[in-house]
Structure formats: C-alpha cells, structure tokens
Fold these 2 entries.
Entry 1:
Amino acid sequence: MKIVALAGGVGGAKLAHGLAQCLPPGDLTVIVNTGDDFDHYGLRICPDLDTVCYTLAGLANPETGWGRAEERWKVMENLRALGAPSWFNLGDADLATHLERTRRLRAGKPLTAVTAEFCAAWGVAQRVLPMTDQPVATMVQTRSDGELPFQEYFVHRRCEPAVTGFRFEGIQAAKAADGVLESIQSADAVVLCPSNPWVSIGPIVALPGVMDALRSAKTIAVSPLIGGQAVKGPAAKMYQDLGIPPSSKAVAEHYRAFLTAMVLDRTDCDEAAQIEHWGIISMVTNIFMSSPEDRQRLAREVLALCEQV
Ligand code: FO1
C-alpha cells in the first residue's frame, strides 16, 4: 500500500517512524514542512526535515524529540562564552548537518537532493521530501509584537505572544518539490500526521497544487490534540488565541475541505458524532505515543483505516 505522510516536527516524525516500521521502505514517502527553516549563524537550518530524518534513522534525541541523541554542546558553550546569540540550541553533531547542508546548497544542489543524500548516509530507506526547494518562511502574526519569524516566535519568545494569524512568505512563488504532487496523486492514502495544523501541515497544504491533489486523494488525519491540549507545542494555544476552542473536532473542521477520515483519542470520543456529521469518517483509539511500540501500534491502526475507507 503506497502511503504518503505529511509531517512537521516531533509528533509527525513519531508517526512517520511508526509507519516506517509497518511498511516496505519503498511504500512510504514523507513530505515535510520547510516553513520553519531559517538562516542562523550563516547556516541553513531545516528543523522539521532534520527531526523526521533523525527519527527515521534512530538518531533523534529521545528527550526533546528534536536534535541528536547523545549530543554534546561544546560549540554552543563557546559561542555563549563569546556573548553570541544562544537562544537557538545547536548541538555539535547537529551542527555538522547544517554545515554540510549549507555547503551543498551553496554549491547549487536543491534541498531535495541534499536531503536524499543525507538520508542515504544515515540509512533512511524511505523517501523523505522537503515540501519545496524554494525558501518559504512561516511568519507568525502577533497582537503584541507584529509579525515574527517562526523560530523567533517558537523558541526565542517561547510561543508567548498571542497569535492573530499566519503568513507563509514565498509560498506563491514556491513550487511543490519534484515528487510531492506525483506521490500524493498516486498514493493509496495520505496520512496527515499529528503535527500542528496551522504551522506544520498548513504550509504544505498552501503550496500551489497540493490542496487540489489532496481533494482527489484518500486523506486520514491523526489529531495532534488530546482533551483540548497539544501533546507537544503551541497548537492548542494557537486555536485559543484565534478564538477557536481547541479540540480534535476543530482540527477536523480545519481539514474539512479535503478530509476523508479523522483519528482521535478516546478522551475525545464525544466529538466523533460532529465529525461524522460533516461527512468525515472517525476512528477513536489511543493516539498518545510515548514509546516506539505506541508509534507502531497507532501506525498499524491508521493503515487498517486507510485500507477500509
Ligand atoms: N526547539 C526549542 O524549543 N529550542 C531550541 O533551542 C531548538 C533548537 C533546535 C535545533 C535544531 C533543530 O532541528 C530543532 C531545534 N528545535 C528547538 C526544535 C524546532 O524549533 C521545532 O521542532 C520546530 O521548528 C517546530 O516543529
């Protein structure tokens, strides 16, 4: 069964890892948000892409979900001693990724090619595609501070400013990367991982051609919210800031234009009827992933649903 997963950061990477345990490597394509990407210390940083690749490679930091396992922080310590900006933590092993990616990009290679080369080096057999090869920057519009670049809002300001909206700079001129539209069109199902609908899945869906491709596909979303709370990150706070009560129902409504089925947690089973009322199939299960076994179990249940719908 050919599956495409749309993913952002940590939650998306976990389900992508579960799917990778259940499918032959050639059957899984992961399309990753690049709206979080930015330049820092002259280096191109692609946090979601790295989180997905490190997780699939078994190299991810199990505590944070982002960055590398058994990381050392010598460079960061020395940057701090020099009084350099230290709000964004780059570990020593992780820095090698950014240095080498930046070198290859500057030599003229597209991000898609660099990502494929890194995946080969790390032993990731699944296809991991950045959503686009062109720069797209998620800008978070806030009540108190105007528009903030994503990492400035997320890491530096710890998601504190109230959100009023989002803008994906460069999205109109960006082209879905080679393989993105084709893989969605030929997939048996597209899984929207439990990533932030506003800033992780949002930029992918906003790329020219993606929404149309999703409308013609079988799409299954796994909620990133349990009991109105995000498992990780600011998704629930963003809904709240925007005046929408955070819930799995709100996520289903968010994706309503193209969604076939929604997977939600047992805690939220009373929301299933409303979701079904919108013509979206619902499946209730335990969606919290605390162990590698959880990822695999949830992936198996999602794949069973993909076969059914
Ligand atoms: N997240 C943090 O909360 N603090 C950090 O210092 C930080 C550094 C970092 C470095 C490399 C990387 O790939 C990810 C990093 N992240 C950090 C996570 C990142 O900001 C988020 O995962 C995403 O952009 C949201 O999905």
Note: The chain has a mean pLDDT of 98.
Entry 2:
Amino acid sequence: MEMPSALIEVVRNARRVVVLTGAGVSAESGIPTFRDAQTGLWARYDPEELASPRAFKRNPKLVWQWYQWRRDLCAGSTPNPGHFALVEMERRIPEFTLVTQNVDGLHALAGSRQLLELHGNIGRYICYDRRHPVTGWEPTDELPPRCPICHSLVRPDVVWFGEQLDAIVINRAAVAAERCDIFFSIGTSSIVYPAALLPQLALEHGAIFVEVNPNPTPLTRFADFVLQAPSGVALPALVQTVWPEVDSGS
Ligand code: BJW
C-alpha cells in the first residue's frame, strides 16, 4: 500500500503519538463492529438499545445473554496485524499512548502496554448496585447471577450509554491528546462521546491528525492524512515503510 511521503516523515520524527481505536480495528479478528448489522441470533436487536442501564433494568437476562455471546466471541479471537503494528509503533515512538474504545482486550493480548481502555473490558464483572468487582458466583440457574457481597445483579464492567467514563482514564487520554505531535483515529465511527472529543482536542492543540478507516466519518474532513483502508492492511504497511527494519512476521 502506497504511503504519502509527508506522512512517513512526520511519523519517523514524532516524539509523542496518541492512537484512538474503535471496533474497526478488531473487525479483521472476526469481531463485528458495534454499528455493523448484527447477524444470527442477535440480528433483531439494536446494540445501542442493549448497551444501557435502562435496557439492563428492563430485561437483565437478555442483556446478560448478549454480553455472554460477545464475551465468548472475544475469548475465541486473536489479535490481527493491525493490533501488532500498534505494538511495533509503541516500541519505536518515545511517548506513545493507545486509547481504545474496545472492550475486547485484544490490544493487551497483542502486547500493547501504554493502554487506556475508555469503555472498560468485557472480561471483567461488577455488580449493578454497588459496583463491587465480581470474580465468581455460586452456581445458579438464575441469569444474571448475583453479587456474593450485596446480592445485586452482576453485569459486565463496561461503560454503557449515559454512564460516566472513569475520570482518571479519560483525563489521562485528554492530557495525552493535548500534548501529542500526531493523533491517529483508527477504525472508529467517531460518533460516541466523550471519545470523539479527543481528536478535536488534539487538533485544537496543533497535532497532525491521521484517520485510518475504509469509510468516511464526521471527522474525515479535518484529517491531514486519510488512509482509506482496513487497519490490518494500512498499519503494517505504515510501520514497514517508516521502519523498514521491522520484521513483518512479528
Ligand atoms: C474499520 C474496519 C477495518 C470497519 N479497519 N476500520 C455529546 C453529544 C451528543 C451525545 C453525547 C455527548 N456526550 C455524551 C453523549 C451521550 C453518549 C453519546 O456519545 N451518544 C452518541 C451516540 C450520540 N455518550 C455517553 O453516554 C457516554 N457517557 C457520558 O458521556 O457520560 C457523561 C454523561 C452522563 C449522563 C448524561 C450526559 C453525559 C458513554 C458512552 C459509552 C459508549 N459505550 C459503548 C458500549 C461499550 C460496551 C460494549 O461494547 O458493549 O461503546 S457504545 C459503542 O460505541 C461502544 C464503542 O466503544 C463505541 C464506539 O463505537 P466504534 O468503536 O466507533 O464502532 P462503530 O461500529 O461505530 O464504528 C466502526 C468503524 O470501523 C466504522 O467507521 C467502520 O467504517 C470502521 N471499520 N472495518 C478499520 N477493517
């Protein structure tokens, strides 16, 4: 894949880079994006209608089962070349922060270390009423199970619509966005806030803005560079071009 020479130059010289990823980065690992049409069992449900406290209160069993299905899908998936290319970038850029909206854990599995998970992680559980971390429960036919401490319902440790993001995590991401030389927005539709504010913050502070997405988003027109391709293709190509000594098999 052809890379703009000006982009190669800025990435090679960058000292502070922030990358924001969304569901598109995991698409090539076989995990459907959030706003893809769902298939099979879940085709008739809108994810935006399931990922909310209101949905959980109305029908906790349905929401639990949807997350159980997605959790199994994530557990059976492996990182793709896009995830691994981001690990290579982290190794080569002095200050690198990877901010992800994904809850699938694939960046950590690939080896990314400077990682901020904005929307939580589907592999962890908390209870609904008191947010106690829950690591196990008594065998039961009841779904969802109940918190061993306070007996409220167990839910995934993710951020639903209308819920606050962890203040420390979003603040760290915002500070990194304000300080970076280059901000990459990769595989996200850029419509969910406050994540979608981060590239805007970076732009206001003078960063170069790069978007990697096969489809346009509301932020495409602000991008200095657009790599209109799947991230599993564009990111390894970028890394190979900027640092030709990198082993493409890693
Ligand atoms: C590829 C590809 C390939 C495909 N390679 N790319 C300001 C204005 C308007 C509304 C709000 C606002 N501030 C807050 C709100 C409300 C709300 C919000 O943003 N609503 C919008 C929908 C309008 N935000 C919130 O409620 C947030 N909380 C909050 O602000 O708290 C303060 C507050 C509280 C109360 C009242 C008011 C304020 C919380 C947001 C939490 C989002 N949670 C979810 C679910 C997480 C758990 C789970 O996974 O189940 O996070 S929703 C869902 O969207 C999920 C995702 O992380 C997130 C973003 O989606 P993403 O990753 O962009 O995926 P897609 O599917 O949309 O896009 C995929 C992209 O990939 C596409 O562009 C493809 O083209 C591309 N692609 N293949 C590269 N191979």
Note: Residues 60-75 form the longest helix (16 residues).
